[in-house]
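User:
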Amino acid sequence: MEKRNFDEWLGKFRASIASYDYYIDFDKVYRNVENVKVELNILNSLIGSKDIEKDFRALLKKYPEVLDAIPILLAKREQEIYCQDENGGYLYQFNSKKYPVDSEETLDLNCYFMRKTGLFELLQNHVINNLVDYVTGVETGLDSNGRKNRGGHLMEDLVESYIKKAGFVKDSTYFKEMYLKEIESRWNIDLSALSNQGKAAKRFDFVIKTENQIYGIETNFYTGGGSKLNETARSYKMLSQEADTIDGFTFVWFTDGIGWKSARGNLRETFDVMENIYSIDDIESKIMRKIFK
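Assistant: Predicted structure:
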């Protein structure tokens, strides 16, 4: 393979690889809303109430299960919420089966919570018209926090799609999330040079097995900089050099993202000594058909 120019290679790194379902998982949002839809519709009866505390008390006595839907109104998934003020602190339990509303004291506490958190005002003063719509918005906002987790899998998903396009079959010729010990036992190969003589439990994102070679694959994508990138570049450089001492095993790294531009020095060092380091542009240029033989 001809010598590549690092600056040209880095210059093709992407700013994002967000898929269409990366931003919001609406199916999950709708499922979460559906789980409390009945309770929310019961609570809708409080909207515009002239005496909301009295009506709320009556509602809890008749439909105690509405208590379970209170946390999501504050964008909380936990059924326990701790609050404190000048009157002290209290751990509120929003689980009608486990902690039933069975006393005036419990009713008082729940009313205090609703008043102090502003939920009574939200309902009484027509700030909203429908709690199902409101919670759909809340769930959408909460789901946006899941982008980091979804983002971590985007590069893996992209690489896997091209592994399949190259003709490899899952659990037959390619494998996901495989530990060194699994590789060693399945194909009778000594990888102790990669595991510090068995002391490190290294896991590869993918492993491809061809007739003559085993390929351990790592994938990542960085939109932002930071010390982690320098550490990753250094550790993968070392991993590549250790892999070069093992017959029948090759380490391959697929990485991308403009975050690398802030850590270009360390990435360049790895690029200069590691033959099998590739970007998304390389993947789209059908590099997999060339390297996995």
